[in-house]
Amino acid sequence: MVDNRFKSEVIIDPRRIYLAIAVFAFLVLSLVGRLWYLQILKGKDFAIASERNRVREVTRPSPRGLIFDRNGSLMLSNRPFFDLVIIPQYLQNREQTLKIVSELFSIPLEQIEKRLAESASIPHFVPIRIKRNLTLHEVAMMESNKFFLPGVDVDTAPRRDYQRSDSAHLFGYLGEVTNRELDSLNSVARDYQYKVGSIIGKMGVEKKYENSLRGIEGKDYLQVDAFGRLQSASAMDFGLSTRKSATRGNDVVLTIDDDIQRAAVEAFRNKNGAVVAMNAQNGEILAYVSHPNFSLSMYQDGLTGEDWQLLQTNPFKPLLDKVTGGEYPPGSVFKIITALAALEEGVVSPQRTYSCNGVFTLGNGKWRCWKKTGHGVVNLRRSLEESCDVFYYQVGNLLGVDRIAKWSRAFGLGEKTGLDLNLERPGLVPTTEWKLQSKGAPWQSGDTINVSIGQGYNLMTPLQIVTMMAAVGNGGKVYKPYLLKKIVDANGNVVAEEKPVTRRKISYKPENMAVVRSGLEDVVMNPTGTGKRSAVAGFRIAGKTGTAQTAALKRSKDQDEVHFQQRDHAWFAAYAPAENPEIAVVALSEFDGGGGGAQAAPIVQKVLEAYLRKAHPEKFASVKVTQKAVDRKTPLDEQRVSPAVDVLPPADSENGGEDNRNDEAAGD
Amino acid sequence: MVLFWQLIKERFRGTPWSLLVTVYLLVGVGLFNMYSATGADVSPFRFNDQLKWALVGTLAMAFWGVLMDLRSIERLSFLSYFIVCAMLFAVDVSGQIAKGSQRWLSLGPIRVQPSELAKFVIILIVARSFMFMKGVHEFTLLTLWRQMIVVGIPFLLVLVQPDLGTSGLVLLIACFQIAFVRVNWTSIAIVVFTGLSASIIAWNFVLYDYQKLRVLNFINPMRDPKGAGYHSIQSMIAVGSGGVWGRGFQQGTQSQLSFLPERHTDFAFSVWAEEQGFVGCVVVFGLYLLLLLQIFQIAEKARDTFSALISLGVAGFFLFHFLINVTMVLGWFPVVGVPLSLVSYGGSHMLTVMSCIGLLIAVERRRASSST
């Protein structure tokens, strides 16, 4: 039974054990001495310190950094908000106090009781918010009655001052951090820890620059008596009754120009969709609008369940940022790509003409031009100006979809632009391979016909179109769009800056692009151009209209009779000045029902005007007088054209408008 | 039936019942204190939790002390050492992935803190490493290379978590054990001297001013009453205001008004001091002194090196946790996350502590069986 493994002799020195016991006993004795000192000698003092000076550590939220536009004008700031709070543990005559509060602030008594009951599980002596955003009158009322209402108080917190109600998607809303966000945020940030209840940016600039904007929260070390009332400093205070004030977050200066932003908001007032303006020479975003807008202050004040439901179920998707997250068929705007691809691939020469008699036939399929009477003999330049569909059906058929896709990719379509704001989407550039893989069906030549005028499987975001448009104008540089000019700390030091990044440099023959660009100029500058309503007198502007169908309609219908979700999207994309563009603008009015030339071009016109007025004031003033003459020459463009059907419909008497309309007909 | 009882009796022969009385008195103090500190909250789940862990701990103690015997523990020591090292490594790796400090490891439904278990296996492995050493020869730094490697690995694995406190404790416990073997005083002096001179050199030539400031704030929290010192000061106010007899059960304003941070874990003793006063504190000190004396006595009576070193390791475990926690609570030591064994809240720690007590039972049972 005895194990030999344990037969070894003990190599422990027993004297060392006695030594250890002695040392330990001595240490315990000195700890008793320390206890004697703290509890018996100084016990009274500490008891007083504990009794009279209940120092409480109270966290103070930090004001978020301010948001400025590129010229330094304030876009978003903070102001103090006052909340009515109750600390239940300090309530003396609970019944009576709550009744008085209920009457003073006209809050139903049951509601107060409900709030207190809901908050029963939070730590003791933490203020419970009863009413948010008190008026100054209410604050004064509370202050004067404070002495009679122990346990009731006014809490001050800096919050966002949403004076302006526009551009919710750009700024983004704030909200309490969720448990999931808490884990991911805190595992990355080592120097800052979020807590339950921390307010963070959940969207837009507030989210993207959260780390800079949030600041460092302060701590108040308050001495309060047994009733929670503030005490003045007294004998034993350890220098505690002070505060570590909160540090405001760093300020963010955006590339947005607020004048242009406001012009875009104003021009887009009653439309849904997106307007985005970008510096064509470096990718700075100048204006960024997504509609419908939603209320940021509603979020800050705590969204009710009903409000949230309404936002979620609204068919116009107000919470979706349509600049980066809205994927739409680009319509005729896409003809720019088809045109350049055709020239570069040698499919057509600039002089080559096609005859448009209003219809294009391939196999059993027939595709109609938006202009049912046809455009007659059209070359490439005129095909852009008048947006002749038949020309692009011909050219697209010769090109094939994969060459169109190659040139789409060259302009950065089909991939995220890299702005990294609000769940950016990549869009879709269809290819034969893509269709085989995702739809399991081979590519049909009819698919190409649709794609060549920007219909079919094509999907693009307004932000992609604006970078594409800038690249057309600036000599082939596809920029990464960006929003941040600089981040400035409290001392005015620049902490971070963003620099232009060229994502792609497209190589093409300059003479080919010159043809395309002159066609785009004709769109705006010629009386027969589809986009003439974007003209700003005194400037040469280039642009392209687009009217994208959302559903293949079986019968010709007036757009007003169509369910709104099947109405057409109206696009207009432009750059100016045409010779050497400084700005590119895109407007997308979704489910508009009207054509791009009629509905989207005037919006772009207002944005361009706001920019040009600022950038070239002299030039602008000198020609202003003559503008009226140019404006509104053709009353016909108000008219609408009916969409076409899959097979040739009977001739439509209403037809004849100069609005362009792209007809997608399911040819097979 | 009689035979069955005889078997049971045989199993429990040599169990150090007086030691267990001391242990459970301290557990009782802890539970009483826990109920006072957090029971007044709306959800007294921490008390229930701790009660549960005390029971689970008792099972762990019975496992190591009664179900196993010292021979099988010795055979398991390497295996458990490697398992714990692997767990520590896994924690480090997952910490790297999560880009943050990581201390927990999820094993199915339970989450364990492998660094706590490291304290337990270090006791076993150091004791095991000296098991077959013979004679009255003196050890020097050179002849202790095995121990350095064996201790160094878990130490570094805990250090990089990063968990400075626990890695320090692992090292302290191991050094404490080794110091009882006849290590010559020159070697001990060399270790102490190297440590001191390294810190002097670092202070004068390596550290930047802001780093020095951090060290100074760490050593003397009073330098920064609003930052590093806040918890120390609150704890001292709590202890001091307890006076001779204390403020009574659930009467401590410092703890009840939650001025005290972590009042159920690291600052559990401040709650005790505030509510039970000087008298209560001296009772706990007395219990701890008694506990340590009992453990040292087991070590002294041990008939083989393995048993003796295990007992000394357990002694070191209790001794360092007690000293660091209490000096911290009394404002003599910076605030570090070291709990007061048996009294503070914490499942993994309770499990480790009770397993250590289980080792002592195994040691005593072995002595009883070999003496016949």
Describe it.
The complex is a heterodimer of chains A (668) and B (372). By secondary structure, chain A is an alpha+beta fold. Chain A has 2 domains: 57-253, Penicillin-binding protein 2a (Domain 2), CATH 3.90.1310; 258-638, DD-peptidase/beta-lactamase superfamily (Beta-lactamase). In chain A, 34% of the residues lie in helices and 18% in strands. Chain A contains 23 helices and 23 strands. In chain A, α10 (258-267) packs antiparallel against α21. The radius of gyration of chain A is 34 Å and the shape is elongated. Residues 232-241, 553-557 and 626-668 of chain A have low confidence and may be disordered. Chain B has 372 residues and is mainly alpha-helical. Chain B has one domain. Helix content of chain B is 71%, strand content 2%. Chain B has 14 helices and 2 strands; from the N terminus they run ααααββαααααααααα. Chain B has a two-stranded antiparallel sheet with strand order 1-2. In chain B, α7 (164-180) crosses α13 (305-329), α10 packs across α12 (268-301) and α12 (268-301) runs antiparallel to α13 (305-329). Chains A and B meet through α1, α2, β1 and α7 of A and α4, α10, α11, α12 and α13 of B.
Annotated CATH architecture of the largest domain in chain A: 3-Layer(aba) Sandwich
CATH superfamily of the largest domain in chain A: DD-peptidase/beta-lactamase superfamily
Number of strands of chain B: 2
Average pLDDT of chain B works out at 82
Number of helices of chain A: 23
Radius of gyration of chain A: 34 Å
Residue stretches of chain A low in confidence (pLDDT < 50, at least 5 long) are: 232-241, 553-557, 626-668
Quick one: biggest sheet of chain B? 2 strands, antiparallel
Largest interface: A-B, 58 and 75 residues
Structural class of chain A: alpha+beta
Give me the strand/helix succession of chain B.
HHHHEEHHHHHHHHHH
**Count of β-strands of chain A:** 23
Task: Provide the domain count of chain A.
Answer: 2
Distance between the termini of chain B: 25 Å
Indicate the overall shape of chain B: globular
Name the beta content range of chain B: under 5%
Largest sheet geometry of chain A:
7 strands, mixed
Mean pLDDT of chain A: 79
**CATH class identity of the largest domain in chain A:** Alpha Beta
